[in-house]
Amino acid sequence: MTASSSVVAEKDETGRIFYTAVGHSIDISAKIARTTNIKASPQTRLYNAKSFQALGHSILAIFLPAGYPNTVTPDYLHYQMYNDVQEFCSSVSGLLASRGALEGFGVGDASASATQALLLSVLKDVCSRFTTIIGAYYFGTSLYPETKTFRFLADVINDTSIVLDTISPYFTSISLSASSPYIPSGSTLQIIALCMSGAMRSLCNLVAGGSKAALTDHFASPVNSKGDVGELNAKNASRSTVVALTGVLLGTLIVPYITTRTSTYTALFLLVFGHLLANYLAVRSVVLRSFNRQRSSILWSTIRNPKAGANGRPVVLTPRDVSNREIILDIPSRIRDAVANRVIGDCSLGVSVQYATTRCNTSHVLKMLQHFHEESYVLFVAEPRSWGRCRPCILVSFKEGYGSLDQLRAWLHALEIAAMWSSQHMRPSPNPSEIEDMILSSHETLRKEFYRFMGYMKEAGWNIEEGAMMMGSPGSVIMSPETKKDA
């Protein structure tokens, strides 16, 4: 017997459940009401509620990725809210910068010519392109491991470019040739400022592009599902377009009234401050689940602190806990004790043995090659270069076939040596036997604690398969170390 009517329950990609009535029956509305567990309402009220609901879903579908919030990480919305604020501030301040740059090119100056403006724009473009090439070489491998640092640094560079463009027309009134003939002044100083502005803007685009790609990959990788990176980029671009357009339209109403030097500086200060504050809050809200040097140092220092846990249990931090403790602008090679919040050493990953021989004595290099013959890395403690330096400088070389876990082990080993060095209050130049004892002792500690540490990290929600400890690839790897003992 064929049923005359039915109610079908469906769930869309966002997890929202809705019901569809198939067929005609006098009790179909009552059946839907019983299934959805809601009270019947007048037809006009249902129509209005459905209209507003449809409008809300349409807006979400335009600006948020499909399947939100299940297809993105929980920190996505907070980051995008702060990011939209900084986009708005940047678009308004960009109008002030564009006006200053045009005045720098000669707009409004009767003595300026179109040829001069053209040559100046070409010079600025040349500086920008050379900066892109050089910046990609030096910073390309650093963007993924230190995503949050370079995302914030990109906007610091961008704001510097905006400031230079905005104040460039005022450089023509500066004259230092009488007192300091070798210091540029006047129009020469203005040209230098415009060229530096172009170079910084291209560097900002390079750094921001790389760090945004890493953040997009993070947002599209929630714990229990996988989002679409391409769609995420498209939705971010559409939302940024609306925010930037709003800022430009509002800026066209405000900028004509900002004509004096005082008002220009005041507006520029407020916009730059708001831009940097929003960007800092955006970067601070990101919760990355992969290891880098700073995050692994925070985790290892905390779990190895005997006073941190209760009843002898170690303290295992979640990605959110570590995100709140991260330092946004920090030097990656520094080894930091997260418990005491101080720098206790320096470590360079991926150095060649040839370089290590220039920083360590030959006997130390030979002993370390022999001691680490079963590991995928070799660790050296360099001799201090400056007098009175009381923290160790550790060098790490990798062997052929090393992996991400080997990078993490090497960094944690260096951290353990620096912690022992700091706790024992070593003098600036300890003797070789003391250094070797610390290396052997810390190596044994790492063997016992490493896999227990990784088990804790997996339970706390960390992605232990993905790590970004080293910036790029090492300059060289050890293929077949030859160690010879003296007879």
Provide a descriptive summary of the structure in words.
The chain is of the alpha+beta class and 487 residues long. 56% of the residues lie in helices and 8% in strands. The chain has a four-stranded mixed β-sheet. The protein has a two-stranded antiparallel ribbon with strand order 1-2. The longest helix is centred in the middle third of the chain and has 33 residues, at 187-219. The termini are far apart. Mean pLDDT is 82; it is low at 37-47 and 483-487.
Fraction of residues in H or I helices: 55-70%
Helix/strand/pairing class, anyone? alpha+beta
CA radius of gyration is 30 Å
Which descriptor suits the 3D outline? flat
The termini sit apart by 98 Å
What are the defining features of this structure?
flat, 4-stranded mixed β-sheet, 6 strands, 487 residues, disordered C terminus
What's this model, at a glance?
The chain has helices at residues 28-36, 43-63, 76-105, 114-139, 147-167, 187-219, 229-254, 261-285, 293-303, 319-325, 353-359, 362-371, 404-423, 432-459; strands at 5-11, 17-23, 334-337, 342-349, 377-382, 393-398. With 487 residues, it is α+β, with helices and mostly antiparallel strands. Residues 37-47 and 483-487 have low confidence and may be disordered.
